[in-house]
Amino acid sequence: MENLSFLIEGIKALVTNGGWRYLVMWLIGALLIYLAIKKDMEPTLLLPLGFGTILVNIPFSGAIGEEGPLTTLFNAGIANELFPLILFIGIGAMIDFGPVLSNPKLMIFGAAAQFGIFFTFCLASLFFDLPDAASIGIIGAADGPTAIVVANHLGSKYLPAIMVAAYSYMALVPIIQPPVIRLLTTKKERMIRMPYAGKQISKTTRILFPIVITVIAGLVAPSSVALVGFLMFGNLIRECGVLDSLSETAQKVLANLVTIFLGITIASQMEAAKFLQWETLLILGLGLFAFVFDTAGGVLFAKFLNIFLKKKMNPMIGAAGISAFPMSGRVVHKMGLKEDPQNFLLMHSIGVNVSGQIASVIAGGLILAIAGSFGGFIG
Amino acid sequence: MSIIENFNFDRFLYSLQYMWQGMLSIFLVIGVIILGVVAMNKLTSRGGKKKENKE
Protein backbone atom coordinates (compact mmCIF):
# COMPACT_ATOMS: atom_id res chain seq x y z
CA MET A 1 0.00 0.00 0.00
CA GLU A 2 2.89 2.31 0.78
CA ASN A 3 3.91 2.13 -2.87
CA LEU A 4 0.58 3.68 -3.80
CA SER A 5 1.09 6.72 -1.54
CA PHE A 6 2.02 8.79 -4.63
CA LEU A 7 -1.67 8.75 -5.51
CA ILE A 8 -2.45 11.10 -2.64
CA GLU A 9 0.64 13.30 -2.89
CA GLY A 10 -1.27 15.92 -4.91
CA ILE A 11 -4.21 15.97 -2.49
CA LYS A 12 -1.81 16.24 0.45
CA ALA A 13 -0.18 19.28 -1.17
CA LEU A 14 -3.59 20.93 -1.45
CA VAL A 15 -4.39 20.64 2.26
CA THR A 16 -0.95 21.44 3.63
CA ASN A 17 0.40 24.93 4.31
CA GLY A 18 0.07 27.12 1.25
CA GLY A 19 -2.22 24.66 -0.49
CA TRP A 20 -4.96 27.29 -0.57
CA ARG A 21 -2.90 29.16 -3.17
CA TYR A 22 -3.55 26.39 -5.69
CA LEU A 23 -7.27 26.64 -5.03
CA VAL A 24 -7.25 30.42 -5.48
CA MET A 25 -5.47 30.01 -8.81
CA TRP A 26 -8.06 27.42 -9.89
CA LEU A 27 -10.75 29.98 -9.09
CA ILE A 28 -8.89 32.61 -11.12
CA GLY A 29 -8.60 30.13 -13.99
CA ALA A 30 -12.31 29.34 -13.72
CA LEU A 31 -13.13 33.06 -13.66
CA LEU A 32 -11.13 33.63 -16.85
CA ILE A 33 -12.92 30.72 -18.53
CA TYR A 34 -16.28 32.09 -17.31
CA LEU A 35 -15.52 35.58 -18.65
CA ALA A 36 -14.44 34.08 -21.97
CA ILE A 37 -17.49 31.85 -22.44
CA LYS A 38 -20.31 33.68 -20.67
CA LYS A 39 -19.26 37.30 -21.21
CA ASP A 40 -17.50 36.76 -24.56
CA MET A 41 -14.49 38.72 -23.26
CA GLU A 42 -11.52 38.06 -25.59
CA PRO A 43 -12.39 34.32 -25.52
CA THR A 44 -9.57 33.39 -27.90
CA LEU A 45 -7.06 34.37 -25.25
CA LEU A 46 -8.82 34.28 -21.91
CA LEU A 47 -10.04 30.71 -22.39
CA PRO A 48 -6.60 29.16 -23.08
CA LEU A 49 -5.18 31.39 -20.35
CA GLY A 50 -7.83 30.25 -17.87
CA PHE A 51 -7.38 26.57 -18.64
CA GLY A 52 -3.61 26.94 -18.58
CA THR A 53 -3.85 28.60 -15.16
CA ILE A 54 -5.56 25.51 -13.78
CA LEU A 55 -3.14 23.23 -15.61
CA VAL A 56 0.00 24.76 -14.11
CA ASN A 57 -1.45 25.07 -10.62
CA ILE A 58 -2.07 21.40 -10.06
CA PRO A 59 0.48 20.33 -7.44
CA PHE A 60 3.57 18.77 -9.06
CA SER A 61 2.16 19.65 -12.51
CA GLY A 62 4.07 17.95 -15.28
CA ALA A 63 3.07 20.74 -17.69
CA ILE A 64 5.76 23.04 -16.31
CA GLY A 65 9.26 22.59 -14.97
CA GLU A 66 12.45 21.85 -16.84
CA GLU A 67 10.92 19.31 -19.20
CA GLY A 68 7.33 20.51 -19.07
CA PRO A 69 5.76 21.16 -22.48
CA LEU A 70 4.49 24.60 -21.47
CA THR A 71 7.96 25.67 -20.33
CA THR A 72 9.34 24.39 -23.64
CA LEU A 73 6.69 26.36 -25.53
CA PHE A 74 7.45 29.45 -23.43
CA ASN A 75 11.14 29.27 -24.25
CA ALA A 76 10.42 28.59 -27.91
CA GLY A 77 7.77 31.23 -28.49
CA ILE A 78 7.50 33.85 -25.77
CA ALA A 79 10.98 34.23 -24.30
CA ASN A 80 12.27 35.01 -27.80
CA GLU A 81 9.10 37.04 -28.66
CA LEU A 82 8.35 34.84 -31.68
CA PHE A 83 4.65 34.11 -31.00
CA PRO A 84 3.48 37.73 -30.59
CA LEU A 85 5.48 38.79 -33.63
CA ILE A 86 4.02 36.03 -35.80
CA LEU A 87 0.59 36.98 -34.52
CA PHE A 88 1.29 40.49 -35.81
CA ILE A 89 1.50 39.13 -39.37
CA GLY A 90 -2.05 37.85 -38.97
CA ILE A 91 -3.26 41.11 -37.41
CA GLY A 92 -1.60 43.15 -40.18
CA ALA A 93 -3.38 41.00 -42.77
CA MET A 94 -6.71 41.71 -41.07
CA ILE A 95 -6.41 45.52 -41.00
CA ASP A 96 -7.76 47.77 -43.72
CA PHE A 97 -5.82 51.03 -43.47
CA GLY A 98 -8.16 52.67 -46.01
CA PRO A 99 -9.86 55.09 -43.58
CA VAL A 100 -6.47 56.42 -42.42
CA LEU A 101 -5.11 56.68 -45.95
CA SER A 102 -8.11 58.71 -47.04
CA ASN A 103 -7.77 61.07 -44.06
CA PRO A 104 -4.19 60.81 -42.72
CA LYS A 105 -4.67 63.74 -40.30
CA LEU A 106 -6.68 61.37 -38.10
CA MET A 107 -3.44 59.62 -37.21
CA ILE A 108 -2.56 62.43 -34.82
CA PHE A 109 -5.21 61.11 -32.42
CA GLY A 110 -3.47 57.75 -32.44
CA ALA A 111 -0.45 59.55 -31.01
CA ALA A 112 -2.44 61.56 -28.43
CA ALA A 113 -4.18 58.47 -27.11
CA GLN A 114 -0.86 56.88 -26.14
CA PHE A 115 -0.68 59.34 -23.23
CA GLY A 116 -1.93 56.66 -20.85
CA ILE A 117 1.18 54.55 -21.54
CA PHE A 118 3.65 57.22 -20.49
CA PHE A 119 1.53 58.60 -17.65
CA THR A 120 1.04 55.12 -16.18
CA PHE A 121 4.74 54.43 -16.60
CA CYS A 122 5.46 57.43 -14.36
CA LEU A 123 2.82 56.40 -11.82
CA ALA A 124 4.07 52.82 -11.76
CA SER A 125 7.63 54.03 -11.20
CA LEU A 126 6.54 55.07 -7.69
CA PHE A 127 6.29 51.39 -6.77
CA PHE A 128 8.26 49.45 -9.37
CA ASP A 129 11.72 49.54 -10.89
CA LEU A 130 11.83 51.42 -14.19
CA PRO A 131 11.83 48.38 -16.54
CA ASP A 132 8.83 46.91 -14.70
CA ALA A 133 7.11 50.32 -14.61
CA ALA A 134 7.59 50.69 -18.38
CA SER A 135 6.22 47.18 -18.91
CA ILE A 136 3.16 48.07 -16.83
CA GLY A 137 2.70 51.34 -18.72
CA ILE A 138 2.54 49.47 -22.01
CA ILE A 139 -0.75 47.89 -20.89
CA GLY A 140 -2.10 51.24 -22.09
CA ALA A 141 -1.14 50.27 -25.64
CA ALA A 142 -4.34 48.20 -25.50
CA ASP A 143 -2.43 45.78 -27.64
CA GLY A 144 -1.66 42.34 -26.19
CA PRO A 145 1.21 41.31 -28.49
CA THR A 146 2.98 44.67 -28.01
CA ALA A 147 2.59 44.36 -24.24
CA ILE A 148 4.09 40.86 -24.33
CA VAL A 149 7.03 41.89 -26.51
CA VAL A 150 7.88 44.97 -24.41
CA ALA A 151 7.46 43.27 -21.02
CA ASN A 152 9.48 40.30 -22.18
CA HIS A 153 12.18 42.44 -23.76
CA LEU A 154 12.54 44.44 -20.54
CA GLY A 155 12.71 41.23 -18.52
CA SER A 156 9.66 42.03 -16.40
CA LYS A 157 8.76 39.34 -13.91
CA TYR A 158 5.16 40.56 -14.03
CA LEU A 159 4.45 39.37 -17.59
CA PRO A 160 1.41 37.19 -16.69
CA ALA A 161 -0.29 39.97 -14.71
CA ILE A 162 0.48 42.45 -17.50
CA MET A 163 -0.99 40.12 -20.10
CA VAL A 164 -4.12 39.42 -18.07
CA ALA A 165 -4.63 43.16 -17.55
CA ALA A 166 -3.98 44.03 -21.22
CA TYR A 167 -6.40 41.48 -22.62
CA SER A 168 -9.09 41.90 -19.95
CA TYR A 169 -9.23 45.68 -20.30
CA MET A 170 -9.28 45.40 -24.10
CA ALA A 171 -12.46 43.42 -23.70
CA LEU A 172 -13.78 45.96 -21.19
CA VAL A 173 -13.34 48.95 -23.52
CA PRO A 174 -17.14 49.35 -23.96
CA ILE A 175 -17.42 49.68 -20.18
CA ILE A 176 -14.28 51.74 -19.43
CA GLN A 177 -14.41 54.37 -22.18
CA PRO A 178 -17.98 55.80 -22.17
CA PRO A 179 -17.91 57.26 -18.61
CA VAL A 180 -14.52 58.88 -19.24
CA ILE A 181 -15.72 60.36 -22.55
CA ARG A 182 -18.94 61.65 -20.97
CA LEU A 183 -16.99 63.19 -18.09
CA LEU A 184 -14.72 65.14 -20.44
CA THR A 185 -17.23 66.29 -23.04
CA THR A 186 -20.44 68.31 -23.08
CA LYS A 187 -23.61 67.07 -24.76
CA LYS A 188 -23.13 69.79 -27.38
CA GLU A 189 -19.65 68.51 -28.17
CA ARG A 190 -20.86 64.92 -28.41
CA MET A 191 -23.47 66.04 -30.94
CA ILE A 192 -20.98 67.62 -33.35
CA ARG A 193 -21.51 66.07 -36.76
CA MET A 194 -18.60 65.15 -38.98
CA PRO A 195 -19.59 64.49 -42.59
CA TYR A 196 -17.44 61.82 -44.20
CA ALA A 197 -15.97 62.47 -47.61
CA GLY A 198 -14.18 59.24 -48.39
CA LYS A 199 -11.47 59.50 -51.04
CA GLN A 200 -10.55 56.80 -53.49
CA ILE A 201 -7.20 55.31 -52.44
CA SER A 202 -5.01 54.02 -55.21
CA LYS A 203 -3.66 50.48 -55.06
CA THR A 204 -0.13 51.90 -55.27
CA THR A 205 -0.68 53.88 -52.06
CA ARG A 206 -2.06 50.82 -50.31
CA ILE A 207 1.00 48.81 -51.34
CA LEU A 208 3.50 51.56 -50.54
CA PHE A 209 1.96 52.36 -47.14
CA PRO A 210 3.24 49.32 -45.19
CA ILE A 211 6.70 49.69 -46.72
CA VAL A 212 6.92 53.43 -45.99
CA ILE A 213 5.67 53.00 -42.41
CA THR A 214 8.24 50.27 -41.76
CA VAL A 215 11.07 52.42 -43.11
CA ILE A 216 10.00 55.58 -41.22
CA ALA A 217 9.36 53.78 -37.92
CA GLY A 218 12.54 51.76 -38.34
CA LEU A 219 14.69 54.81 -38.97
CA VAL A 220 13.27 56.79 -36.05
CA ALA A 221 12.85 53.97 -33.55
CA PRO A 222 14.90 50.96 -34.68
CA SER A 223 13.74 48.96 -31.65
CA SER A 224 10.22 49.05 -33.07
CA VAL A 225 11.22 47.61 -36.41
CA ALA A 226 10.35 44.00 -35.55
CA LEU A 227 6.94 44.98 -34.18
CA VAL A 228 6.07 47.40 -36.97
CA GLY A 229 7.72 45.28 -39.65
CA PHE A 230 5.75 42.10 -38.90
CA LEU A 231 2.48 44.06 -38.70
CA MET A 232 3.18 45.79 -41.99
CA PHE A 233 4.39 42.59 -43.67
CA GLY A 234 0.98 41.08 -42.92
CA ASN A 235 -0.67 44.17 -44.38
CA LEU A 236 1.49 44.04 -47.51
CA ILE A 237 0.41 40.43 -48.07
CA ARG A 238 -3.20 41.65 -47.85
CA GLU A 239 -2.85 44.64 -50.14
CA CYS A 240 -0.48 43.33 -52.83
CA GLY A 241 -3.33 41.56 -54.58
CA VAL A 242 -1.29 38.55 -55.68
CA LEU A 243 -1.17 36.64 -52.40
CA ASP A 244 -4.83 36.24 -51.57
CA SER A 245 -4.49 32.70 -50.27
CA LEU A 246 -1.53 33.67 -48.06
CA SER A 247 -3.48 36.67 -46.80
CA GLU A 248 -6.42 34.46 -45.92
CA THR A 249 -4.12 31.96 -44.20
CA ALA A 250 -2.42 34.72 -42.20
CA GLN A 251 -5.77 36.20 -41.12
CA LYS A 252 -7.34 32.92 -40.10
CA VAL A 253 -5.13 29.86 -39.75
CA LEU A 254 -1.89 31.54 -38.68
CA ALA A 255 -3.53 33.99 -36.26
CA ASN A 256 -5.70 31.27 -34.72
CA LEU A 257 -2.84 28.81 -34.40
CA VAL A 258 -0.55 31.28 -32.66
CA THR A 259 -3.38 32.51 -30.44
CA ILE A 260 -4.03 28.98 -29.16
CA PHE A 261 -0.41 28.60 -28.12
CA LEU A 262 -0.03 32.18 -26.89
CA GLY A 263 -2.70 32.00 -24.20
CA ILE A 264 -1.82 28.61 -22.80
CA THR A 265 1.92 29.33 -22.95
CA ILE A 266 1.58 32.60 -21.05
CA ALA A 267 -0.36 30.62 -18.45
CA SER A 268 2.83 28.70 -17.74
CA GLN A 269 3.95 31.81 -15.86
CA MET A 270 0.81 31.95 -13.74
CA GLU A 271 2.08 29.79 -10.93
CA ALA A 272 0.51 30.66 -7.59
CA ALA A 273 3.78 31.74 -6.03
CA LYS A 274 4.47 34.22 -8.83
CA PHE A 275 0.93 35.49 -9.38
CA LEU A 276 -0.63 35.77 -5.92
CA GLN A 277 1.11 38.94 -4.83
CA TRP A 278 -0.08 42.43 -3.94
CA GLU A 279 1.86 43.63 -6.97
CA THR A 280 -0.61 41.81 -9.24
CA LEU A 281 -3.54 43.81 -7.82
CA LEU A 282 -1.56 47.02 -8.17
CA ILE A 283 -0.72 46.16 -11.79
CA LEU A 284 -4.39 45.52 -12.56
CA GLY A 285 -5.25 48.92 -11.02
CA LEU A 286 -2.48 50.71 -12.94
CA GLY A 287 -3.60 48.99 -16.17
CA LEU A 288 -7.06 50.46 -15.68
CA PHE A 289 -5.47 53.89 -15.15
CA ALA A 290 -3.60 53.45 -18.42
CA PHE A 291 -6.82 52.83 -20.37
CA VAL A 292 -8.58 55.75 -18.67
CA PHE A 293 -5.73 58.19 -19.40
CA ASP A 294 -5.39 56.95 -23.00
CA THR A 295 -9.04 57.82 -23.48
CA ALA A 296 -8.65 61.15 -21.71
CA GLY A 297 -5.53 61.98 -23.73
CA GLY A 298 -7.33 61.44 -27.03
CA VAL A 299 -10.47 63.37 -26.06
CA LEU A 300 -8.62 66.31 -24.51
CA PHE A 301 -6.31 66.58 -27.51
CA ALA A 302 -9.32 66.76 -29.84
CA LYS A 303 -10.81 69.49 -27.63
CA PHE A 304 -7.50 71.34 -27.75
CA LEU A 305 -7.42 71.17 -31.56
CA ASN A 306 -11.00 72.44 -31.68
CA ILE A 307 -9.82 75.73 -30.16
CA PHE A 308 -7.98 76.45 -33.42
CA LEU A 309 -10.34 74.83 -35.91
CA LYS A 310 -13.17 76.62 -37.69
CA LYS A 311 -14.91 73.37 -38.52
CA LYS A 312 -15.08 71.65 -35.13
CA MET A 313 -14.42 67.95 -34.67
CA ASN A 314 -16.39 65.68 -32.42
CA PRO A 315 -13.90 65.24 -29.55
CA MET A 316 -15.17 61.72 -28.89
CA ILE A 317 -13.24 60.42 -31.90
CA GLY A 318 -10.01 61.13 -29.99
CA ALA A 319 -10.92 58.33 -27.59
CA ALA A 320 -10.77 55.81 -30.42
CA GLY A 321 -7.01 56.34 -30.73
CA ILE A 322 -6.26 53.26 -28.64
CA SER A 323 -5.36 50.00 -30.28
CA ALA A 324 -8.42 48.03 -29.16
CA PHE A 325 -9.81 47.49 -32.65
CA PRO A 326 -12.64 47.73 -33.60
CA MET A 327 -14.23 47.98 -30.13
CA SER A 328 -13.10 51.51 -29.43
CA GLY A 329 -14.22 52.83 -32.83
CA ARG A 330 -17.62 51.23 -32.36
CA VAL A 331 -18.00 52.62 -28.82
CA VAL A 332 -17.48 56.18 -30.11
CA HIS A 333 -19.84 55.59 -33.04
CA LYS A 334 -22.56 54.25 -30.74
CA MET A 335 -22.15 57.16 -28.32
CA GLY A 336 -22.53 59.58 -31.23
CA LEU A 337 -25.70 57.83 -32.37
CA LYS A 338 -27.08 57.91 -28.84
CA GLU A 339 -26.78 61.70 -28.71
CA ASP A 340 -28.01 62.23 -32.26
CA PRO A 341 -29.41 59.33 -34.31
CA GLN A 342 -28.23 61.05 -37.51
CA ASN A 343 -24.63 61.46 -36.36
CA PHE A 344 -22.53 58.79 -38.10
CA LEU A 345 -18.99 58.90 -36.75
CA LEU A 346 -18.05 55.34 -37.68
CA MET A 347 -15.65 56.05 -40.55
CA HIS A 348 -13.82 58.71 -38.54
CA SER A 349 -13.67 56.67 -35.36
CA ILE A 350 -12.51 53.54 -37.19
CA GLY A 351 -9.85 55.64 -38.94
CA VAL A 352 -8.61 56.91 -35.58
CA ASN A 353 -8.81 53.39 -34.16
CA VAL A 354 -6.63 51.99 -36.95
CA SER A 355 -4.16 54.84 -36.33
CA GLY A 356 -4.10 53.76 -32.72
CA GLN A 357 -2.89 50.34 -33.84
CA ILE A 358 0.10 51.84 -35.61
CA ALA A 359 0.77 54.36 -32.83
CA SER A 360 0.65 51.76 -30.07
CA VAL A 361 3.21 49.59 -31.83
CA ILE A 362 5.46 52.61 -32.34
CA ALA A 363 4.96 53.58 -28.69
CA GLY A 364 6.11 50.07 -27.76
CA GLY A 365 9.23 50.59 -29.84
CA LEU A 366 9.83 53.98 -28.24
CA ILE A 367 9.53 52.48 -24.76
CA LEU A 368 12.16 49.91 -25.74
CA ALA A 369 14.34 52.70 -27.12
CA ILE A 370 14.15 54.90 -24.02
CA ALA A 371 14.66 51.88 -21.77
CA GLY A 372 18.29 52.02 -22.80
CA SER A 373 18.77 55.05 -20.56
CA PHE A 374 17.05 53.61 -17.46
CA GLY A 375 20.47 52.79 -16.04
CA GLY A 376 20.97 56.52 -15.46
CA PHE A 377 18.70 56.42 -12.42
CA ILE A 378 20.53 56.03 -9.15
CA GLY A 379 17.85 55.48 -6.55
CA MET B 1 10.84 43.40 -1.61
CA SER B 2 7.27 44.56 -0.86
CA ILE B 3 5.48 47.35 -2.71
CA ILE B 4 5.81 49.74 0.24
CA GLU B 5 9.53 49.05 0.65
CA ASN B 6 10.04 49.69 -3.06
CA PHE B 7 8.17 53.04 -2.97
CA ASN B 8 10.50 55.69 -4.38
CA PHE B 9 9.42 59.25 -5.10
CA ASP B 10 12.78 60.20 -6.64
CA ARG B 11 12.32 57.46 -9.22
CA PHE B 12 8.91 58.96 -10.07
CA LEU B 13 10.47 62.42 -10.55
CA TYR B 14 13.20 60.86 -12.68
CA SER B 15 10.63 59.05 -14.83
CA LEU B 16 8.75 62.27 -15.65
CA GLN B 17 11.37 63.12 -18.29
CA TYR B 18 10.35 59.96 -20.15
CA MET B 19 6.73 61.08 -20.25
CA TRP B 20 7.41 64.22 -22.25
CA GLN B 21 10.18 62.57 -24.27
CA GLY B 22 7.90 59.66 -25.16
CA MET B 23 4.90 61.83 -26.07
CA LEU B 24 7.04 64.23 -28.10
CA SER B 25 8.69 61.32 -29.94
CA ILE B 26 5.40 59.67 -30.80
CA PHE B 27 3.93 62.93 -32.11
CA LEU B 28 7.06 63.45 -34.22
CA VAL B 29 7.03 59.92 -35.66
CA ILE B 30 3.29 60.06 -36.41
CA GLY B 31 3.77 63.55 -37.89
CA VAL B 32 6.41 62.22 -40.29
CA ILE B 33 4.11 59.31 -41.20
CA ILE B 34 1.23 61.72 -41.90
CA LEU B 35 3.47 63.78 -44.18
CA GLY B 36 4.60 60.57 -45.91
CA VAL B 37 1.00 59.45 -46.49
CA VAL B 38 -0.08 62.88 -47.75
CA ALA B 39 2.87 62.89 -50.18
CA MET B 40 2.07 59.35 -51.31
CA ASN B 41 -1.59 60.27 -51.88
CA LYS B 42 -0.59 63.30 -53.94
CA LEU B 43 1.96 61.43 -56.03
CA THR B 44 -0.28 58.47 -56.77
CA SER B 45 -3.34 60.64 -57.51
CA ARG B 46 -1.25 62.67 -60.00
CA GLY B 47 -0.19 59.43 -61.65
CA GLY B 48 -3.82 58.31 -61.76
CA LYS B 49 -4.98 61.59 -63.32
CA LYS B 50 -2.25 61.41 -65.99
CA LYS B 51 -3.40 57.90 -66.87
CA GLU B 52 -7.03 59.07 -67.09
CA ASN B 53 -6.04 61.99 -69.34
CA LYS B 54 -4.11 59.70 -71.66
CA GLU B 55 -7.10 57.41 -71.97
Walkthrough of the structure:
The complex is a heterodimer of chains A (379) and B (55). Chain A has 379 residues and is mainly alpha-helical. Helices cover 69% and strands 0% of the residues of chain A. Chain A has helices spanning 9-15, 19-38, 43-56, 69-78, 82-94, 98-102, 107-112, 115-124, 130-137, 144-153, 159-171, 173-184, 187-190, 203-220, 225-239, 244-266, 272-275, 278-308, 327-339, 346-370. In chain A, α5 crosses α16 (244-266). Chain A is globular, with a radius of gyration of 22 Å. The mean pLDDT of chain A is 89. Chain B is mostly helical. At the A-B interface, α7, α8, α9, α14 and α18 of A face α1 of B.
* Cα distance spanning the termini of chain B: 74 Å
- Contiguous low-pLDDT stretches of chain B (5 residues minimum) are none
Query: Helical stretch count of chain A?
Result: 20
Main β-sheet description of chain B: none
Largest sheet of chain A, in brief, is: none
Q: What is the 3D form of chain B? A: rod-shaped
Please report the number of helical segments of chain B: 1
Number of strands of chain A: 0
Helix content of chain A: 55-70%
Radius of gyration of CA atoms of chain B, rounded to a whole number: 24 Å
Question: What's the SSE pattern of chain A?
Answer: HHHHHHHHHHHHHHHHHHHH
Overall geometric form of chain A: globular
Report the order of strands and helices of chain B: H
Report how far the terminal alpha carbons of chain A are from each other.
59 Å
